[in-house]
Amino acid sequence: MTVVSPDNRRTRREFPPGFAWGTATAAYQIEGAVTEGGRTPSIWDTFSHTPGKVANGDTGDIALDHYRRFREDIRLMADLGLTSYRFSISWPRVQPTGRGPAAERGLDFYRELVDELLSHGITPVATLYHWDLPQELETPPTGGSAAGGGWPSRDTAYRFADYAGLAAEALGDRVSTWTTLNEPWCSAFLGYGAGVHAPGRTDPADALRAAHHLNLGHGLAVGALRAALPASAQLAVSLNLHVVRPLSERPEDLEAVRRIDAVGNRIWTGPMLKGRYDEDLLQDTAHLVDWDALVHEGDLAEISRPIDLLGLNYYNPTVVSASAPGQALPRDDGHGGGTASPWPGAEDVAFHRANDDLTAMDWPIDPTGLSDCLLAMHREFGLPLLVSENGAAFQDTVAPDGTVHDPERTAYLRGHLDAVADAIAAGADVRGYFLWSLLDNFEWAYGYDKRFGIVHVDYDTLVRTPKSSAHWYAGVIRRGGLD
Ligand code: FCB
Hints:
This protein has 16 helices and 16 strands. It has helices at 27-30, 43-48, 66-80, 91-94, 104-119, 135-138, 155-171, 184-194, 204-228, 251-274, 279-284, 291-294, 299-303, 368-381, 407-425, 468-479; strands at 2-4, 11-14, 20-24, 84-88, 123-129, 177-182, 234-239, 244-246, 309-313, 318-321, 350-352, 385-390, 430-436, 455-457, 464-466, 481-482.
């Protein structure tokens, strides 16, 4: 909503009452304490300990030691006035090895975390899967009877639903908003296609199998959550939908958009929100997988169980053209190197930068992609929306007086919050904004090189220092909008 003051000189962008002002984090990126309380390795522990997979050989072994310092971190959130916090639960911490009973010590950590949030008036939003699959579900111990095989294996979807049920039983009395998967596109296509994320496999057919089993896991988990939670629970999924734009209006470039939209976006929204895989997606990938064998009777009904909110993670738009050898960007579309394609059935599509105004990730800055995406999802599905991630990495420097001044991040955030306000003004029902991220953290294949936090972390001392963007965000929250 835009409010123009009587003298017409000041314009304020206000957000709806009850709008969630949050930040987001993920377990492996911040917790550390990887062997505490019976936690077993996840695929990210294994991947980060494999030479050459992560910049500088960085791992999440210590990360920000949030596992021990969570009270200090929640105090920071309270000082900033955050009303909501999206965190992820580490599956191997609460159900070591990915099957069997829950680990009470693991659950206790999240009980204490949530209680601490609630005692500061901060609403918890729990994500069940932010990429840390228990390693034993990827590679079962030799001699065991377990299926293994990771997400390309159907069994993993059922294991995920069991874990969702355990987590909901333990935390459902104090957490009412849940997200099943974070960015399943990354899990399937960066993890099993491009191999730049854990577990580092590069088989396009397995990537598609993983996609279907992530969808199935989502649907089964929604069922398990509904069974364990009160009727008032709000269930969501967080998708990194690709805002795909054509390099030109040439038919072949529009066709490139169609193909990336199919395997980047509709492969999730189709089954989850419409109960179907679109015919063009099936055709584009028919030479890689036998979809009739992959999708069992009843799967689509399971996957399309209703959810209450759709979470969108947005960083930058994607510009594509038909094959343009020599001119294209690395085809991973943003998450780190690799020579194999994360786009099965669309390997020859070329990627281009939307503009040259770049963050430290080399991601172009264009807030219009966020309002476009929110409005497109609002019009197509009519669901309440969350911006479940948005933010930017920049090369922050600590001034001699210890302060961190990051005007570029503030400008990025201001532009994107303005885009959220635009979408709301145009009718989208956006319920909250979760800034990525509260703290500088382990940025997957980039290790600790890329800083996304509004709070700076000194990785030698683990001292936290709010950056100027944090103070700016606190002001936005205090005023309930942008000036
Ligand atoms: C998203 C991830 C999140 C973080 C940001 C920068 O794709 O969900 O963990 O890495 O990118």
